[in-house]
Structure formats: structure tokens, C-alpha cells
Design brief:
By secondary structure, this protein is α+β, with helices and mostly antiparallel strands. It has one domain: 2,3-Dihydroxybiphenyl 1,2-Dioxygenase, domain 1 (Roll). It has five helices and ten strands, in the order βαβαβββααβββββα. A four-stranded mixed beta sheet has the order 1-4-3-2. Strands 5-8-7-6 form a four-stranded mixed beta sheet, with no helix packed on it. Strands 9-10 form a two-stranded antiparallel sheet. Strand 6 and strand 7 form a beta hairpin. The longest helix has 12 residues. It starts with 10 loop residues before the first strand and ends in a 7-residue tail after the last helix.
Length: about 170
């Protein structure tokens, strides 16, 4: 029997102190969409869709946030993202170390010579570190064929049972 295959990171859980502030920040800064799971489940945990992934947020009085631990999000358009951060007044830094210390000689993002990858770091309202990454050359499979990341303007979600989808007013796909 071979190694079982992991297909993707389904979600990351992040500690926060204020769910409404977190929801508003992630919606405004990163275009997240609220995942409505009904009142009982929503009360337990904030869940947001960001791109193809989910982010889960658990409220706590004192979040334990390591200085350089982070998660990374791929962005579709680098220049638009930086302009958006600038317009919102959100500082960004070229490394996790610079984000921890507050700067690195005026440089605000990095570009790798080998892949053209761009990256920068921001912090959410609770201080969680987020790396923003852009790969201008795109993604390829093992055979070198370009791979497009699926997306939909209305977002993507996991299927739920027909009863739950009906209760939430979600139109089921056939």
C-alpha cells in the first residue's frame, strides 16, 4: 500500500481576541467572505473563505502568537495588493524578522531571482503574521504544464447535506 495522498491544506485555525474586528479586517484587507454555518456553530468559531481555503478563528482572552510563525496567502495581482495595503495604511515588511522589529532599511517587500516570487509580511489586528506571496510565472505541474488555480467570483465552499443547504438557503448543485 502506498502513501495516502494529502490533497490540500483545508484550513488554518488562528487565535484572536475580537471576532467582529477580525471579520471586518479580513474582509476589508484580504477580501475574505464569511462562512455562515448557522447561529449555534457561528457562536463557537468564526470561519472565513479566503481564496480556495478556509480560515478558522477562535476567540481567546490572551492569544499565544509566536513572533515569526505565519501563514502565507497567494495573491493574484501584486501591484494591486500593495496599492490596496497602502490605501488602507497597513504597513508591510520584507521579512518576518522585519515585521517583528518594525522595519528593515526602508525595503518593504522581496523578489526572488530564481522564480520571480514576490513576498511581504503584514499583521492582523491581533498581531498574527501573514505572508503575502505572488508568483508571476504561475504554477506548473510535474510535466511543466501551466496549472490555473480554480476560482469563482462568488467564492467556493465545501458541499453540505441537502438539509443543511436548504436551511441556509443554498442552491445545491446537481
Amino acid at each position: 500500500m502506498g502513501m495516502p495522498r494529502v490533497t490540500m491544506v483545508q484550513h488554518v485555525n488562528v487565535q484572536i481576541t475580537d471576532r467582529q474586528r477580525t471579520r471586518e479586517w479580513y474582509e476589508k484587507v484580504l477580501g475574505a467572505r464569511f462562512r455562515d454555518r448557522g447561529p449555534e456553530r457561528n457562536a463557537r468559531q468564526l470561519q472565513l473563505h479566503i481564496g480556495m481555503a478556509e480560515m478558522h478563528f477562535t476567540e481567546t482572552d490572551k492569544p499565544m502568537i509566536p513572533a515569526r510563525a505565519h501563514f502565507a496567502l497567494e495573491v493574484e495581482n501584486w501591484d494591486e495588493m500593495l496599492a490596496h495595503l497602502d490605501a488602507l495604511g497597513i504597513p508591510y515588511f520584507p521579512s518576518s524578522q522585519a515585521a517583528a522589529t518594525g522595519g528593515e532599511g526602508g525595503r518593504r517587500w522581496n523578489k526572488r531571482d530564481d522564480t520571480g516570487e514576490h513576498s511581504t509580511y503584514i499583521r492582523d489586528p491581533d498581531g498574527n503574521l501573514i505572508e503575502l506571496v505572488y508568483h508571476p510565472l504561475g504554477m506548473v505541474d510535474a510535466d511543466g504544464n501551466r496549472v490555473e488555480v480554480p476560482s469563482h467570483p462568488g467564492g467556493m465552499r465545501w458541499r453540505q447535506t441537502p438539509e443543511v443547504e436548504a436551511a441556509l438557503g443554498i442552491r445545491s448543485a446537481s
